[in-house]
Structures are given as C-alpha cells and as structure tokens.
Amino acid sequence: MSAPDLTLYPGGVRIDPEGMSIGGCGLAEVADRFGTPALVVDEGALRERARTYRRAFADLHPDSGVLFATKAFPSASVLAVLAEEGLGLDVASGNELAVAIAAGVDPGRAVLHGNAKTDEEIAFAMSQGIGHIVIDNLDDVGRIRRLAGGVQPVLLRVAVGVEADTHEAMATGGAASKFGVGIDVAGEVIELIRKEPTMRLDGLHAHIGSQIFSLAQFRQEVARLAELGSFPVYDLGGGLAARYTSEDGEAEIGEYAKALVGAAHEFLGEEVRLLVEPGRSMVAPTAVSLYTVVTVKRGRLVHVGVDGGMGDNLEVSLYGQRFQPWVLDRDRPAERCDLVGHHCESGDVLATNVDLATPEVGDRVVIPVTGAYTYTMSNNYNAAFRPPVIFCRDGEAREVVRRETMDDLLARELTIARPGASGSRSAAGGRR
Ligand SMILES: Cc1ncc(COP(=O)(O)O)c(C=O)c1O
Fold first, then answer.
1. Is 237 a pocket residue for ligand 1 (Cβ < 6 Å)?
2. Closest CA to 160 of 87, 232, 93, 239
3. Cα–Cα dist 83/67, whole Å
4. Looking at 263, 283, 303, which one is the last position of a domain?
5. Which of 169, 243, 355, 390 has the most CB atoms around its CB within 10 Å?
6. Residue 293 sits in the same domain as residue 248
7. Does residue 88's CB lie within 6 angstroms of at least one atom of ligand 1?
8. Range 35-40 average pLDDT
9. How far apart, in Å, do the first and last CA atoms of the chain sit?
C-alpha cells in the first residue's frame, strides 16, 4: 500500500515513526482522546490559508476584501480565527450572522445573502449594522423599505447566465437559477432600487456556483456584470474548487486572484472595490475527518463500514464528491474497497472503489479535505451525534465544538422523560 498523498493534507501534516500528525498532534492520539468520528482542523493551515487569500488579492488590487462564506464552516471558532486574520464574512441567514456576532465578528464587515430572507432576518441584520444586504428579489426591496431606520447599503445579486461546469446542485449562476435577478431584468431593478430613499445601491453581486476549476468561467461572470454599467463595488462571490483527490487538477488561489482581478481591471476598471466570498477553497484543505472501522464485509465487494458517514459528511451523497481515504498509520497490501457509513441508506458512502490497506476492525481511517460543508451539513440521521471539532496547533489539541450527547438529542422533545432528569416532563413542565 502506498503512502498517502500528503499534498491533499493540511500544511501542518507530518508522518514520522509515531504516525501521522497534524499541527503537531498525532491523529491516533486525537482519535483515542476525543473519539470518532471527529473533524480535525489544522489551525495553522487555516490561518495561513486566510493570509494567502488576503495577500493574493491585496497584492493585485489593494481595494479588495475577502469575505469568508460562513456557510462552508459556521463554527464560531473558525469564524473567530478567520476574522482575526482580517477576513470579513458572508452570511446566508440571520442565524449565521448571530453565530458570527457571538464569535466577536464585526457585523459591519459582513454581507447578508439569501434568496428568501424573512422580515426577521432583514430587521436583525440592519439592527446589527450589517455592512451590505444583498438584494436577491423585489420582496427584499419591499422589506428593506418597510424595515429600514436609515439608509441601508445594498448590493444587487444578478443571475449572470453563466452555467458553471460543476455538479448541477452546485451551479447558481445560470439563467434559471433561484438566486438573484436575471441579467435581462437587472437594469430595471437597478433603476427601481436607485429611487428608494432607504437604500444605497453600492454595486452588484454574482456567484456562479461551487467547486469550479475553470477560471474562464469567472472571467465570463465579470464580463457579464460589466454589461450593467459602472458601480463602486463588485462582490464576485466564491466558487473556486478544492482539490479532493490526487486526480483532481490544481485550483491555485494565486491563479484565481490573477484571473478575477485581471478580468475586473479589463471589464470593470481599476477604481472599483472588489469583494470575493470563498468558502470551500478557504477551509476544505485545512481539516481531516477521523473514523474507526466497525466492520469489514468481504463479499462481492469489500464494504468497510465506519462509525460515521452521511451524518457527518453529506458531500458524497449530495454531490457525488470523491474523497481519498487512508487507513491511518497502516502499511499493509492494498485492497479495493467501498468505504461506507453506518446509516440506513445504500447511498451512505464516503468513498467507493478506493484502495485501502487491507482494513481491519478497529483501524482508524482518515479522510483529508473535509473542512468545507461537512460540519455545516452534519445531521442527526439515525439519531447520530454530530461530531466534535478539534483544533490542532503547536502540538496542542483543543476541542472547540464538543460531540453531541443524548441529552442534546432529547433536549427538544418536550413530552418524554429524559435520562438523568427526575420525574417525567410534559410540554407544560418541560424545559423551555
Ligand atoms: C452567495 C455565495 N457566496 C459564496 C459562496 C461560497 O462558495 P464556495 O464555497 O464554493 O466558495 C456561496 C456558496 O454557496 C454562495 O452561495
């Protein structure tokens, strides 16, 4: 069995005689101490990634801002680290904004998105002094008009008609997208917003999708926005791909910045403020998931069942994402396997048709590039506990999100007796 492809792992990965470590913390020890499944973040790599992003854009275009797309990893600890590194945020709900505020992030450095924002979300965002609200539809205009106490800075999201080359569930910039106003009607909506005394239209926003390798498509996005006239601010969204397997192409932040800034200078001019909203490409490579092998079934296929799955990583069942697992610290002959989860769905897989080191019950399995959209979409299917998040840095492993407990799971059930609670609880007498 060959060694793992370390280029897929966070910068702080090492392999020495004791085994694989991240941020100076041995992964086997982390698994023993915190249990599995667990999401392990290389804090140094996370910080470095944020700096790389910021520098890449600032060097080419000083009037730029990098806003982390909170949805990709909405843990307060992650948001706090990224804010410390000078990033702003994009939030896609009032609750994401509330998490950001709890993390100490300045709401003035955040933009609020959403294709169906409620009165409550818009009012909350404005009460907190949100930097920009991204208008997605005419109902947003009506809501801001009704709820604004002053003049709210806004951007207009435009469906630019670029069909991104990605999984269809991740494409958001096509003409039929549920997000934004069509480019054919955007001119009228711009005129309408400009007449609103409670709004200041600073510019345009577009986001064409996620897991996009083609830099030409980002260039197309910028060119389409330029058709709508000149604005002081352009928020170009996120979307840069992450490299999940050795077969995936490169998706370099520097090249992405060059492509985006180059297109902006060419089509929008050099005097504009440029914002970008990376999510996946910011956090995906900074974390790994740890599992324990529960069963190995050698039949027509070799099914290696672990103690996690679609409850902690929906990327495979939702988008068909490929991952490249490795049996932690084991050097045995390779065996072709399907790595499957413990949930009651045949679609609950983590990686199919992969070579693993003849897995045995009790082995740990590590999957790299799991920092994006795993924590955020983790769920309680089959009453699974959502896993902890462990930050590793300078040899110290710090649990920043604990594993769920049965108490957490039962906390919203108002009519049952809860373990450890005295007497039975009713809806009236239960904790509220
Ligand atoms: C408006 C907006 N901005 C940014 C992002 C982040 O995209 P990615 O994680 O692909 O960088 C998304 C993702 O869905 C989004 O909807």
1. yes
2. 239
3. 9
4. 283
5. 390
6. no
7. no
8. 98
9. 54
318 φ/ψ angles, rounded to the nearest 5 degrees: -85, -40
- Single out the catalytic residue among 25, 337, 344, 392: 344
pLDDT band at 428 (very low <50, low <70, confident <90, very high): very low
- What number does the ligand 1 atom closest to the CA of 72 have? 9
Ligand 1 neighbourhood includes 207 CB (under 6 angstroms): yes
99 and 228 part of one domain: yes
> Measured from the CA of 211, which atom of ligand 1 is nearest?
10
Asked if 241 and 164 count as a contact pair (C-beta separation under 8 A), the reply is no
Of 109, 108, 126, nearest to 117 (Cα)? 126
Residue 201 structural domain: 43-283
Residue in this structure with the two tokens 């027509």, named with its chain if needed: 300
Condensed to tens digits (0 to 9), the pLDDT of residues 227-237 reads 999 999 999 99
State in Å: Cα 327 to ligand 1 middle.
Answer: 32
Give the pLDDT of residue 420: 61
**C-alpha 278 – ligand 1 centre gap (Å):** 6
Are 388 and 369 in the same domain?
A: yes
Task: Categorize the per-residue pLDDT at 97 as very low, low, confident or very high, splitting at 50, 70 and 90.
Answer: very high
Alpha helices in 35-93, H assignment, sequence order: 43-60, 76-84
Judge whether 430 lies within some domain: no
Please confirm, yes or no, whether 337 is among the known catalytic residues: no
- Which segment of 59-63, 232-236, 340-344, 415-419 scores lowest on mean pLDDT? 415-419
Q: Which atom of ligand 1 is nearest to the CA of 277?
A: 4
pLDDT of residue 16: 94
DSSP 157-196: EEE-----SS-GGGB--STT-SSSEEHHHHHHHHHHHHT-
Two structure tokens written together for 290:
């740890």
Residue nearest to atom 12 of ligand 1 (CA): 238
- Encode pLDDT of 184-240 as tens digits: 999 999 999 999 999 999 999 999 999 999 999 999 999 999 999 999 999 999 999
Are residue 48 and residue 157 in the same domain, yes or no?
Answer: yes
What CATH number is associated with residue 165? 3.20.20.10
In short, whether 65's Cβ falls inside 6 Å of ligand 1 is no
Torsion of CA 354, 357, 362, 365, to 10 degrees: -50
Number of domains in the chain: 2
At which of 256, 283, 310 does a domain end? 283
Asked whether residue 307 falls in the same domain as residue 270, the answer is no
**Are 278 and 319 within one domain?**
no
Same domain, 311 and 231: no
Q: To which H or E segment does residue 350 belong? A: strand 349-357
Same domain, 225 and 328: no
